[in-house]
Design brief:
146 residues; respiratory chain; NADH_UbQ_OxRdtase_su10; 2 strands; electron transport; 67% helix; mainly alpha; two-stranded antiparallel ribbon; 4% strand; globular
């Protein structure tokens, strides 16, 4: 994918628009104290907006893949591979961030999920060798799947 392709231009546009709205807020306030209710509510609302945006991105990528399959017909496995790869990576990232939170998951639950994941990765870093991760109960899973 080159610099001039439509996907790169779209990403640049989204990043520019996002920085206009998010820049001043991030500069003004980076952290919430435990007793700051207003900050928690603002962070939770931002988390909900981010989840809706990520859901729409997944929906668009899923629709692009579906349209590519319909357009290409029998050759879709070769010609739609890059779109499928983008969708799979986005779905994996979505599940890493929002998976297992449920419908009512909030920013605190997502933060704790991220914290637990980082701690688990730090504790099990020494078990990784040759591209294969060994799960504590003896199951071996390729790092490509993780």
């Amino acid at each position: 994918m080159g610099v001039g392709d439509p996907l790169h231009q779209f990403e640049a546009f989204v990043n520019a628009v996002g920085s206009v709205f998010d820049g001043p807020v991030t500069w003004f306030r980076d952290e919430c104290y435990t007793d700051d209710i207003v900050c928690f509510v603002e962070a939770n609302e931002q988390f909900k907006r981010d989840r809706m945006v990520d859901n729409e991105v997944l929906s668009i990528l899923r629709q692009r893949h579906h349209d590519c399959i319909l357009y290409e017909g029998h050759d879709h496995k070769e010609k739609c591979a890059s779109i499928k790869e983008q969708y799979d990576k986005a779905a994996e990232n979505w599940f890493i961030k929002y998976g297992d939170l449920g419908v009512y998951g909030d920013v605190k639950a997502a933060y704790m999920k991220q914290n637990h994941r980082l701690l688990w990765e730090r504790r099990h870093r020494h078990e990784e060798s040759n591209g294969v991760k060994k799960i504590p109960d003896g199951i071996v899973i390729s790092s490509i799947l993780l």
